[in-house]
Design a protein that fits this description.
The structure is a single chain. By secondary structure, the chain is α/β, with parallel strands linked by helices. The chain has 12 helices and 12 strands. The strands form 2 sheets. An 8-stranded mixed sheet has the order 6-7-8-3-9-10-12-11, with helices on both faces. Strands 2-1-4-5 form a 4-stranded antiparallel sheet, covered by helices on one side. Helix 4 (109-119) packs parallel to helix 6 and helix 6 (155-167) packs parallel to helix 7. The longest helix has 18 residues, at 185-202. The structure holds adenosine-5'-triphosphate. The site of adenosine-5'-triphosphate has 13 residues, from strand 2 and helix 1. Keywords: ATP-binding, Nucleotide-binding, Transport. GO terms for molecular function: ATP binding. Residues 9-253 form the ABC transporter domain.
């Protein structure tokens, strides 16, 4: 991504550790550096447990990093007070995999859609109906849905409601955490089309967390590939199939042609299992699954190095062949 794009948010050296059994420490995110741009989509991919959701929870103020900074328009938001966090949260909204978990099943769609606007005192009670109808039109659902309950809707329709609700506050950043993973492929596509249209219209920065590289590459401007808490490659979305360099990203690209990736399954094209996050080896985290592993990889952690504009790779093998 070029410098011409306006930076909205930057994660700088983000580390998140959790205490684990027998006095051990689990490092879910290890020195994460990412930049998010206005009107652009950052896709974050990786297998289950690589730290995607933990990263997103920090970006959305749900958790504080152990160390590092998250800059929102240049201001560090990791140490904000409760009141400041609440005020800032309207600029940064989330859509989750399971909308039912965040909807009150006893509330009608009218009230679900306008609850955030009421909480932030952006509309009056008598404006709820008109606003809810406007939001339904925005996500291409019939206005009559204002009187429905969420359990009387399909998964795709419910996800449209989540998107409308999240965008009601006109946030600058929309975070989608596996937002389309539970949907059938055709429904998934139509929800992505909607998100892309709304992103363009409203110039929203989107962070899209997903385990499915094939899906994310179709619309992300920038993709960060995570492995055991580390970013191992960042690459422009359109380049990810042809120009991916990290052996792990290449395996992910290979896997999308063999199986539709299931987050619970290991990557088919890699022989061994990923180590436990409690047992990340010294050196490169991918070493035990990598055919190019050398003694250096077992001793030293490769740093992310730029090999082309917007394309960074953390791998000694790639460094050596591109020298
Ligand atoms: N509150 C917590 N306490 C202890 N460990 C945690 C906590 N939250 C996450 N972890 C651990 O941190 C690691 C990263 O988890 P995270 O949920 O961020 O991964 P993920 O890539 O989002 O996976 P998934 O797609 O399955 O959600 C995992 O090993 C997880 O068990």
């Amino acid at each position: 991504m070029s410098e011409n794009h306006e930076i909205v948010m930057q994660a700088k050296h983000i580390v998140k550790q959790f205490p684990a059994s027998r006095g051990r420490t689990l490092t879910a995110c290890n020195d994460i550096n990412l930049t998010m741009y206005k009107g652009k989509t950052l896709g974050i991919v990786g297998e289950s447990g690589c730290g995607k959701s933990t990263f997103v929870r920090m970006v959305t103020f749900l958790e504080k990093p152990t160390s590092g900074e998250i800059l929102y328009h240049g201001k560090n938001i990791t140490g904000l007070s409760k009141k400041e966090t609440w005020e800032n949260r309207q600029n940064l909204q989330m859509v989750f995999q399971d909308p039912m978990a965040s909807f009150n099943p006893k509330m009608k769609i009218r009230d679900i859609l306008t609850e955030p606007l009421m909480n932030y005192k952006k509309i009056k009670r008598n404006e709820r109906d008109a606003k809810a109808r406007e939001l339904l039109r925005m996500v291409e659902l019939p206005e009559e849905f204002v009187d429905r309950y969420p359990h009387n809707m399909s998964g795709g329709q419910r996800q449209r409601i989540s998107i409308a609700r999240a965008l009601s506050l006109e946030p600058e950043i929309l975070v989608c955490d596996e937002a389309t993973s539970a949907l059938d492929v055709s429904v998934q596509e139509s929800v992505i089309e909607l998100l892309v249209r709304l992103q363009k219209e409203k110039n929203i920065c989107m962070i899209f967390i997903c385990h499915d590289l094939a899906l994310i590459r179709s619309f992300a401007h920038q993709i960060a590939v995570m492995y055991l808490g580390h970013i191992v490659e960042t690459i422009p979305g359109e380049d990810v199939s042809g120009n991916a360099e990290h052996p792990y990203t290449k395996a992910l690209v290979g896997a999308q042609f063999s199986v539709h990736m299931d987050p619970a399954k290991k990557i088919e094209s890699i022989e061994s299992e990923a180590p436990s996050p409690l047992d990340v080896p010294v050196g490169c985290p991918f070493q035990n699954r990598c055919e190019h592993c050398t003694e250096q990889c077992k001793k030293e952690m490769p740093e992310l190095k730029e090999i082309a504009p917007g394309h960074e790779v953390a791998c000694f093998y790639v460094e050596n062949i591109t020298k």
